[in-house]
Write a structure and sequence with these properties.
The chain is mainly alpha-helical and 81 residues long. Helix content is 38%, strand content 0%. The model has no long low-confidence stretch (mean pLDDT 83).
């Protein structure tokens, strides 16, 4: 068995390398907030700044995206960071 130990670190089950409880809680909270935002999708065009031609073109390929198990409604124009 190979165990990788990096400078200042330990094994994966070593609590000394884990973030403290407050930092851990904040990280989980931020992931939840950033993934729960339902804004910035191209097809919704909430800011009315997406060219109609792009929306029309994406819609035209809806079946092809679906064949790849991808919903075009999930394509974002904004990255919420």
């Amino acid at each position: 068995m190979v165990v990788w130990v990096f400078a200042g670190g330990g094994e994966e089950d070593d609590p000394a390398i884990a973030p403290n409880i407050l930092e851990s809680t904040n990280l989980i909270y931020m992931v939840n907030v950033l993934t729960a935002i339902k804004y910035g999708y191209i097809l919704k065009n909430e800011d009315d700044n997406i060219p109609e031609e792009l929306i029309t073109t994406l819609t035209r390929y809806k079946k092809e995206f679906a064949d790849l198990d991808y919903k075009i409604g999930n394509i974002r124009a904004l990255i919420n960071i």
